[in-house]
Write a structure and sequence with these properties.
The two termini are about 45 Å apart. The protein is about 20% helix and about 30% strand. It is built from six helices and 22 strands. Bound molecules: 2,5-dihydroxybenzoic acid (GTQ) and fe (ii) ion. 2,5-dihydroxybenzoic acid binds near residues 75, 104, 148, 162 and 164.
């Protein structure tokens, strides 16, 4: 009896389909996937990109691809095989190669971006009237709709990691892009104003804080980040991350960007962290040392220069088997966006 009813219901649903479609309506069809799954099911794959594979590819990019006018960039995108587009479902990570004498011309876009410098020193980026040197280990922000261009006067190719929340922006149907008529935008009277005002992280000019529309600090130097990390090593370790710090907006105390979070972490020699899972996606860049991340039972061995993304809601744990070498990881994630929307969840098996 129950079976007959189910069949009748399925037939009724199919019969309704076309009539409803004329009015841009539909009912759930028997072969539609369910609206909900008990836990997240993501097509994003856990991927390890090895520096030994990336390095020769980047060299080829530098030799074979030109940098044309029109705001183009020479980048190697880290493409997730589980997606048609993106490194994860919210962001694109790319490695940008810039050659001596090149200028990556000015443009602006709604996507938020940042650069974490991987190799080389001495390029500059101009962000909305402020110019910053880009040196290894530095983090430079380009919040949405700020004009930016890059220039390099050094003598060997330079590379950095770019991450943009493009997939999230596209999912929100909020894409705007504008090229500049000028190759480079002008620099203001104090080229590194945001650093001079907020770069100490502790003290800033008295008075009201500036507009909270975006982080008033655009640059976090390697020295500042590494000394903060060493200082934090005196705390109780984080069970899942050993020593870990968030790059923060110095005025609000919140994450450095509205959609993407950045963290720096150290896994000390001999440390085996606890497993956990969470919603949202993240990408690691191995700044120093080597280690292992076990994701749903599969070990991924990483070392300096490698990148790794972890599938959302996959159970994962880090370990450093070295007797004397610290592992340092830079991380980008989409937790600020997830938290703002109420979708961030985390679970640690008992
Ligand atoms: O440097 O402005 O990797 O606009 C992708 C888009 C870099 C940039 C990327 C961009 C940039
Ligand atoms: Fe850009």
């Amino acid at each position: 009896m129950a079976e007959l009813q189910t069949m009748q219901d399925a037939d009724a649903r199919r019969a309704l389909k076309e009539d409803l479609a004329r009015f841009h309506c539909r009912v759930h069809q028997p072969d539609d996937p369910p609206l909900f799954t008990r836990v997240p099911e993501s097509s994003v794959e856990t991927v390890l990109w090895r520096w030994k594979d990336l390095e020769p590819l980047l060299e080829r990019l530098g030799q074979q691809l030109s940098l044309e006018a029109g705001g183009q960039r020479r980048t190697l995108r880290l493409a997730n095989p589980g997606l048609a587009f993106g490194t994860t479902h919210t962001f694109w990570a790319s490695i940008q190669v810039i050659l001596p004498g090149e200028i990556a011309s000015a443009h602006r876009h709604t996507a938020n971006a940042f650069r974490f410098i991987m190799h080389g020193n001495g390029a500059t980026t101009t962000v909305e009237g402020e110019r910053y040197a880009m040196n290894e280990g530095d983090l430079v922000l380009t919040p949405g709709m700020m004009w930016h261009d890059h220039e390099y006067r050094g003598d060997t190719p330079m590379i950095w990691l770019d991450v943009l929340d493009i997939s999230l922006m596209q999912a929100m149907h909020a894409t705007f892009f504008e090229g500049s008529k000028e190759l480079q935008r002008p620099v203001g009277p104090v080229p590194d104003r945001s650093f001079r005002q907020y770069g100490s992280g502790l003290m800033s000019p008295p008075g009201r804080p500036p507009s909270l529309a975006h982080n008033p600090l655009l640059v976090y130097s390697r020295e500042t980040a590494m000394s903060a990390l060493r200082q934090a090593a005196g705390l109780e370790p984080d069970p899942c991350d050993d020593v870990i710090l968030e790059y923060r907006n110095p005025v609000t105390g919140g994450p450095a960007m509205k959609t993407m979070g950045m963290r720096l972490q150290m896994i000390r020699p001999g440390v085996h962290c606890k497993p956990r899972r969470h919603t949202g996606s993240k990408l690691y860049y191995v700044v120093q040392g080597e280690g292992t991340t076990i994701v749903d039972g599969v070990p991924y061995e990483w070392s300096r220069g490698d990148f790794m993304t972890v599938r959302p809601w996959a159970l994962h744990e880090h370990l450093n088997r070295s007797a004397d070498q610290e592992a340092v990881l830079f991380q980008v994630n989409d937790f600020p966006a997830m938290e703002a929307l109420g979708y961030y969840r985390e679970e640690r098996p008992a």
